């Protein structure tokens, strides 16, 4: 699979895979599953979106942040996939930095899910969980992690 080409066919750019900000792996392969650590809306190591959904950012801005997180997930996948093929995205975890009254977490995470379907088609089918948080690292509005199955 030429992941970079699939991304570019959708008019998108696959960013450089962000480096971990601590003593952990960006991705870990175990038994045919690639576990991808939480990805923030970073581009060139710069946090593009900051703040809380429902206070500082709109749902649409949150979706854009989630899309960038998904592109970073794909970047990590591209970096670690080597000669293997993607079977499917198994699970997507979304963490939303939100105000106490914000209730549209799922709409925000749709930005990531929709981008994955746009790029990967049927291979993007996944389960997911979305959780509202009082804060995230670097004041990011969204963080997403994934588990993908490789052939």
TrEMBL record:
Protein name: RidA family protein
Species for this entry: Motiliproteus coralliicola
A Pfam family that the UniProt record links to this protein: YjgF_endoribonc
Endoribonuclease L-PSP/chorismate mutase-like domain span: 9-140
């Amino acid at each position: 699979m030429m992941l970079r080409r699939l991304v570019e066919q959708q008019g998108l750019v696959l960013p450089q895979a962000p480096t971990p900000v601590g003593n952990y792996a960006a991705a870990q392969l175990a038994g045919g599953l690639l576990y991808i650590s939480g990805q923030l809306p970073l581009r060139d190591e710069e946090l593009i979106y900051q703040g809380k959904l429902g206070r500082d950012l709109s749902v649409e801005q949150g979706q854009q942040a989630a899309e960038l997180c998904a592109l970073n997930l794909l970047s990590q996948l591209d970096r670690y996939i080597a000669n293997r093929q993607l079977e499917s995205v198994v699970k997507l975890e979304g963490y939303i930095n939100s105000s106490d009254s914000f209730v549209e977490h799922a709409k925000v995470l749709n930005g990531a899910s929709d981008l994955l379907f746009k790029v990967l088609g049927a291979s993007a089918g996944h389960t997911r969980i979305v959780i509202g948080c009082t804060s995230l690292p670097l004041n990011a509005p969204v963080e997403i992690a994934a588990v993908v199955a490789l052939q």
